[in-house]
Amino acid sequence: MNSKRPVNLDLGKFHFPLPAITSILHRISGIIIFVGVAFLLYGLDLSLSGEDGFNRVSGLLDSFLAKLIIWGILSALLYHLVAGIKHLLMDMGIGEELESGRLAAKATIVVSVILIILAGVWVW
Amino acid sequence: MVNSVTNLGRSGVYDWLIQRVTAYALALYTVFMLGFMVFNDVNYETWTALFGQTWFKIFSLLALLSLGAHAWVGLWTVTTDYIKATLPRFLFQAGCGLVMFVYLVWGIQILWGL
């Protein structure tokens, strides 16, 4: 490899096409879900421990912070689900070309934004 | 090829398959749970009735096992991309593996109340 070729690894100067952004968001949302599962398991454990525990979870979910955490986890989950379905469609050969890939990336963003807004309405 | 000792299926093709199969299970479980919570009046009775049924416990355990395998393949991919030094990557992956193990045992305890 020619060692004198120019190298620009300044991420701030990179131009990321939309499919690259949906891909990195898929990764980030996956990590958020992985951490979020701890909150969900905690809530599930408490809610199934008895009627008092269930009411405590209901009470916790009245607080703004808990709603924000749940909305955050739901957002990551919904995005990861939508982007994941796009992957499964690509396994079937749908959306693999440059143009259809860009369209699929746009659809991923649009559908998940709508679902995330709906999830926010549902949580509050 | 040194990295492949830590991947789940010992080969990219197996990892790909594991990722896909678990993705279908997790997608089904997610859609079911969201549907249940959005379209039902969730209270203590309906909630415990759902988690009291054997088929739903099995479905939940399937989702939990899928989560572990799915997260392992995903986090393995992410860590091998971004953490180039072997020791920090190994430690991070080991930490993720421990968290998955804790999730699994915790989840089984919640479902079957051991």
UniProtKB/TrEMBL annotation, chain A:
> Is Transport tagged as a keyword?
yes
Q: Where in the cell does this protein reside?
A: Cell inner membrane
Q: Which InterPro entries match?
A: SQR/QFR_C/D, Succ_DH_cyt_bsu_CS, Succ_DH_cytb556, SuccDH_FuR_B_TM-su
Q: Name any cofactors this protein relies on.
A: heme
Q: How does it sit in the membrane?
A: Multi-pass membrane protein
Copy the pathway line from the protein's UniProt record.
Answer: Carbohydrate metabolism; tricarboxylic acid cycle
Q: Which GO terms describe its molecular function?
A: electron transfer activity; metal ion binding
Quote the cofactor binding remark. The heme is bound between the two transmembrane subunits.
Q: Is the keyword Cell wall biogenesis/degradation in the record?
A: no
Task: Give one Pfam family.
Answer: Sdh_cyt
Give a Gene Ontology cellular component term annotated to this protein: plasma membrane
Q: Where does heme bind?
A: 80
Residue spans crossing the bilayer:
21-44, 64-82, 103-123
Keywords, in A-Z order: Cell inner membrane, Cell membrane, Electron transport, Heme, Iron, Membrane, Metal-binding, Transmembrane, Transmembrane helix, Transport, Tricarboxylic acid cycle
Q: Which domain of life is it from?
A: Bacteria
Could you provide one GO biological process annotation from this protein's UniProt record? tricarboxylic acid cycle
Q: Which family does it belong to?
A: Belongs to the cytochrome b560 family.
NCBIfam families assigned to the protein according to its UniProt record, in alphabetical order: succ_dehyd_cytB (TIGR02970)
Summarize subunit and interaction data from the UniProt record for this chain. Answer: Part of an enzyme complex containing four subunits: a flavoprotein, an iron-sulfur protein, plus two membrane-anchoring proteins, SdhC and SdhD. The complex can form homotrimers.
Function noted in UniProt: Membrane-anchoring subunit of succinate dehydrogenase (SDH).
**Name of this protein:** Succinate dehydrogenase cytochrome b556 subunit
Organism per entry: Marinobacter persicus
Name the lineage: Bacteria, Pseudomonadati, Pseudomonadota, Gammaproteobacteria, Pseudomonadales
